[in-house]
Write a structure and sequence with these properties.
Blueprint lengths: L6 E9 L4 H14 L3 E8 L7 E9 L13 E4 L2 H7 L9 E4 L11 E4 L1 H7 L6 H13 L4 H11 L3 H16 L3
Parallel strand pairs: 1-4, 4-5, 5-6
Antiparallel strand pairs: 1-3, 2-3
Helix pairs in contact: 1-5, 3-4, 4-6, 5-6
Length: about 180
């Protein structure tokens, strides 16, 4: 999976409380740090925990005119609801990385399941599933450098949370090797 030219659109979708808004912000800030133009939007249901939550990030080396994702290059879906909502994009060739812990298995082309929630839990912090999945998205797409995401984690988190999130980010990167 590679990005098309210098323009990249990603959707991060799941449920409120999974930290997807933060992941979208981290991805956007990492791209800015790399000198790219970015638009990051977010949407979440009435209930902040439990309702559909999503972040959209558009990254380009040129000016971004339209500020909504029109054709995603990658979709991250952390729940069955999110996977169902965006599964039509897979038929159009868009890779969908989904959480096989929480969503039903898909065998159709362009679906890749990763046990994001189970892996985060195994690492000792299920609440870090967003950082784990972000590591996988970055490793699969190359949209930003892993080193830049690490820099953003060092900036965003404090104390023991820094090392824990760096470990989880690396584990997400390593999931792509399986």
């Amino acid at each position: 999976m590679t990005t098309r030219s210098d323009h990249f659109e990603v959707i991060l979708a799941g449920t409120g409380g999974q930290g997807l808004i933060l992941s979208g912000i981290l991805l956007a800030e990492a791209a800015i740090l790399e000198g790219k133009n970015v638009v990051q939007t977010q949407s979440y249901g009435i209930a902040s925990r439990g309702g559909l939550s999503l972040a959209e990030v558009i990254i380009d080396t040129e000016e971004i005119i339209f500020q909504q994702v029109q054709r995603p290059d990658c979709i991250l879906a952390l729940t069955e609801e999110a996977t169902r909502k965006y599964e039509g994009w897979a038929a159009k060739g868009v890779p969908i990385l989904y959480d096989s812990t929480l969503a039903n298995a898909r065998t159709a082309p362009n679906f890749t399941g990763y046990a994001f929630t189970q892996t985060a839990s195994d690492l000792g912090n299920e609440m870090s599933v967003n950082i784990l999945a972000l590591g996988t998205v970055a490793a699969k797409t190359g949209v930003v450098r892993m080193e830049t995401l690490e820099q953003m984690i060092r900036k965003r988190f404090k104390g023991t949370a820094v090392e824990m999130n760096l470990k989880v980010l690396a584990a997400g990167r390593d999931l792509t090797a399986r």
